[in-house]
C-alpha cells in the first residue's frame, strides 16, 4: 500500500477564515502517514486566518497553490495516486486543473454541502472557497488553470447552493445529487464506469460527526460516505482530496474525528 500513494498535506493558508482547518489537516496527515507508512510532503507554512475577500486571499495563496499543483503533477508522473489532506476547498484551485490535464477522462466527485460554483460576479460572501469548481471549469480566471469539463463534475450531497450559483451549475451541465439521492447506486450511475477524482469537504456530513467551519443540516452520515467509497472500484480512483476538518472544536473530541476520517478513508484504500 505504501508505494501506491503520494501523501500531500497542505499547510499554507488558502483563504482560511478560521484557524482550525490547518491544524486539522496536519493531524489527519499524521494519522494517514502512520496508516500508510508514507512520509507526507508538506506544502506551505501556516499563517493566521483572516476574513478577507477572494481578491486578497487568492494572491496570498499563490505559493501554496503552486506547490500543490507541482506536488500533484510529480505524484502522477511517479505513477502514484495523489492523496491530499487540505485545509480548505480553495486548495483545489491548484489541484483540479492539474487533475484535469493528466486525467481528462475522469469524473470529479465533489462530495460537499456546497456547489462552490460562484464567480466574482455572483458571490455574496467574497469567499474564495465558494468559487473553486467554477474556476476549474473556466467560468472565471483564477490564474491557476482550468480545463475541467463541468459535464464530468458530480456534486454529491449538495444542499446549500445560492440561487445564481444553482443556475450556473445547471447551465454548465454539472450533476448535483442532493443528500436524499446520494446513494452508492446513484453515484455509480453518474460515474458510468469512468475513472474518478474524489474531493470530500467534511461539511457534507450532518453536523456533529466531523466539525467543519460551515455547518449545514440535512447532511449525509459517515456510513453513507463509506458506502459510496466502498462501491467505487479501487482501480478507478485517480486522486483523493480530504478538506475542511476543523480541529479544536469543543463539540467533538479531536481524536474521535481523526479516527472517523481515517476509518472512512480506508474504504477507498482497500
Automatic annotation (TrEMBL):
Cross-referenced InterPro entries: Ureohydrolase, Ureohydrolase_dom_sf
Pfam families: Arginase
Keyword Flavoprotein: no
Keywords of the record: Hydrolase, Manganese, Metal-binding
SUPFAM superfamilies the record matches: Arginase/deacetylase
Record keyword Transport present: no
Source taxon at top rank: Bacteria
Family stated for the protein in its record: Belongs to the arginase family.
PANTHER family documented for this protein: ARGINASE
Protein's UniProt name: Arginase family protein
Amino acid at each position: 500500500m505504501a508505494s501506491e500513494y503520494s501523501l500531500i498535506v497542505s499547510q499554507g493558508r488558502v483563504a482560511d477564515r478560521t484557524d482550525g482547518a490547518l491544524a486539522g489537516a496536519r493531524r489527519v496527515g499524521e494519522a494517514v502517514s502512520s496508516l500508510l507508512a508514507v512520509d507526507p510532503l508538506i506544502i506551505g507554512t501556516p499563517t493566521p486566518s483572516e476574513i478577507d475577500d477572494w481578491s486578497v486571499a487568492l494572491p496570498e495563496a499563490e505559493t501554496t497553490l503552486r506547490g500543490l499543483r507541482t506536488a500533484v503533477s510529480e505524484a502522477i508522473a511517479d505513477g502514484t495516486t495523489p492523496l491530499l489532506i487540505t485545509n480548505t476547498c480553495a486548495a483545489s484551485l491548484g489541484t483540479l486543473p492539474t487533475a484535469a490535464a493528466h486525467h481528462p477522462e475522469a469524473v470529479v466527485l465533489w462530495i460537499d454541502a456546497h456547489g462552490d460554483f460562484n464567480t466574482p460576479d455572483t458571490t455574496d460572501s467574497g469567499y474564495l472557497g465558494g468559487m473553486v469548481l467554477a474556476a476549474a471549469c473556466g467560468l472565471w480566471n483564477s490564474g491557476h488553470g482550468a480545463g475541467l469539463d463541468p459535464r464530468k463534475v458530480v456534486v454529491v450531497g449538495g444542499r446549500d447552493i445560492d440561487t445564481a450559483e444553482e443556475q450556473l451549475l445547471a447551465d454548465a451541465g454539472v450533476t448535483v445529487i442532493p443528500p436524499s439521492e446520494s446513494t452508492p447506486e446513484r453515484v455509480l450511475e453518474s460515474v458510468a464506469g469512468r475513472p474518478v477524482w474524489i474531493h470530500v469537504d467534511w461539511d457534507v456530513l450532518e453536523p456533529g460527526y466531523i466539525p467543519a467551519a460551515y455547518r449545514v443540516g440535512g447532511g449525509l452520515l459517515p456510513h453513507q460516505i463509506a458506502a459510496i467509497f466502498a462501491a467505487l472500484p479501487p482501480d478507478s480512483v485517480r486522486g483523493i482530496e480530504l478538506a475542511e476538518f476543523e480541529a479544536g472544536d469543543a463539540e467533538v473530541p479531536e481524536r474521535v474525528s481523526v479516527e472517523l476520517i481515517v476509518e472512512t478513508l480506508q474504504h477507498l484504500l482497500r
